[in-house]
């Protein structure tokens, strides 16, 4: 089975930065109190950070069973965080239109 941990780590760290940019821009424009956008982006930040952590642990561990478990956790956290980002994009789109 191909190892996904390096890919998860790379994508999670990039999307973590994207989520932080969303939160920062919401705070600068002072529209964060009108929507749930900052809550979804904040949750996505936490989940992407945890996904980065578990994918890093999967890369660094020597035990095959533990590596697989960490990779699976990172994968699911990444998927949930991606869903939060999609919700944030939907909120932005509805707000703009």
From TrEMBL:
Identify the keywords attached in UniProt to this record, alphabetized.
Membrane, Transmembrane, Transmembrane helix
Listed transmembrane segments: 7-28, 40-61, 73-96
Its domain of life reads Bacteria
Question: Is Transmembrane there in the keyword field?
Answer: yes
The name of this protein is Uncharacterized protein
Q: Which organism is it from?
A: Chryseobacterium flavum
């Amino acid at each position: 089975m191909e190892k996904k941990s390096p890919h998860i780590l790379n994508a999670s760290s990039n999307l973590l930065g994207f989520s932080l940019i969303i939160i920062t821009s919401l705070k600068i424009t002072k529209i964060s109190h009108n929507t749930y956008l900052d809550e979804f982006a904040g949750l996505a930040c936490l989940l992407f950070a945890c996904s980065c952590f578990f994918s890093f642990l999967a890369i660094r561990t020597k035990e095959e069973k533990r590596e697989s478990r960490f990779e699976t956790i990172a994968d699911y956290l990444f998927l949930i965080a991606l869903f939060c980002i999609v919700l944030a994009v939907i909120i932005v789109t509805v707000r703009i239109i």
